[in-house]
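Let us work through a complete example step by step.
Step 1: write down the sequence.
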Amino acid sequence: MKTYSASLLADTKCILGEGIQWNTRTARVYWTDIFGDALWSCDENGKDLKKRALPTGLCAFAFTDQRVLAAFTDGLYWLDLDTTERELIKAYQPESSTSRMNDGGLDRQGRFLVGGIDEDDMKPTTPVWSVSPDGIATVIERVGCANSIVFSPDGRTMYFADTASTPIFAFDYNPDTGQLSNKRLFVDSQIGKPDGSTVDAAGALWNTRFGGGCAQRFLPNGTEDSRVALPVPNVTCCCLGGQQMDRLFITTARLAMTEDELAATPSAGGLFYCDLPVSGLEHGTYRTSK
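Step 2: predict the structure and record it as tokens.
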């Protein structure tokens, strides 16, 4: 197994960095600080660092040609990045005071799949939605903390983790209908808990490990092939990008760390990177028409 080391790219000290993605159109990497109510971006070398203040916590998002489809803590919205004005599409479990939206990702057809978290000890109470011009459908129920929603290069396998436990699962995914079937165990690593993921051009899954201080690469058969080590414990999400699509960008969090832990790892919450001998796939955009 190969082991690489990540370096700090931007010392942003996010409370909960998440949702990272490379935008090929703007040649920038974007990520959110959920509890910092901010959207960050920079170029592939960490230059031109920008922080956009938001009205509340942004959890996951997808670009379109004009607006951003944005999963905020309280629901799904259209977001205007210039004005930060929001237009509500659908509230997320408004009857619950402990649940919010969490991880989300695009399938290869441009649907946005997004799930939530119950912050009362990750009780299995939240759904995963599939969002498309056809509407919003629930595709998974009774989730404690949705994570790792990514797709194989051919779009026929969806990966998913409930961070209330340690396994990552794979589903057969119908690209035409967006329906899931044949849930099965993909991998069960005991290094921290599974958080956000990305899939590279070879079909391998890169999964970040909250509390585990690393990102792990798993081949399509579930074998761990390589690992990127970080100098901070709470590793939250990753994407491949840059001009050559071979730079792994990795978000981290300061959440739930003590003052002594933060003093020992002052770069916690920063954006890290690692150049790798693999290539990524374009993140894509949300499909706005049928």
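Step 3: interpret the result. The chain has one helix and 25 strands.
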